[in-house]
Amino acid sequence: MEFSKEELTEARRQIGSTIHKLRETVKTLEGKERPERYKAQITLAVRRIRAFEIADALIVRELERE
Questions:
Q1: What does the pLDDT read at residue 61?
Q2: pLDDT (tens digit per residue) in 33-55
């Protein structure tokens, strides 16, 4: 599947925004009075951050190939 440079650039922007929001979510949950109650949500958010970081790195690789 081929994507234009503009599509890849916009995807990176959206991924960056989502990563930022997820990091803020993790901070908020970890800052709660009893963060252990939110362990599952924190783990899920951290895993999603990592997945988006991988996707971003692959997009960067694709953009550098052009």
A1: 97
A2: 999 999 999 999 999 999 999 99
Q: How many CB atoms lie within 10 A of CB 45?
A: 21
Residue 15: name the closest of 63, 61, 60 by CA: 60
Amino acid at 39: K
Q: Which two tokens stand for residue 14?
A: 């959206």
Tokens of 32: 């709660």
Rounded to whole angstroms, how far apart are CA atoms 24 and 5? 29
CB count within 10 Å of CB 26 equals: 20
Q: Which residue has the tokens 């930022």?
A: 20
Residues 51, 36: Cα–Cα separation, whole Å: 23
Which amino acid belongs to residue 5?
Answer: K
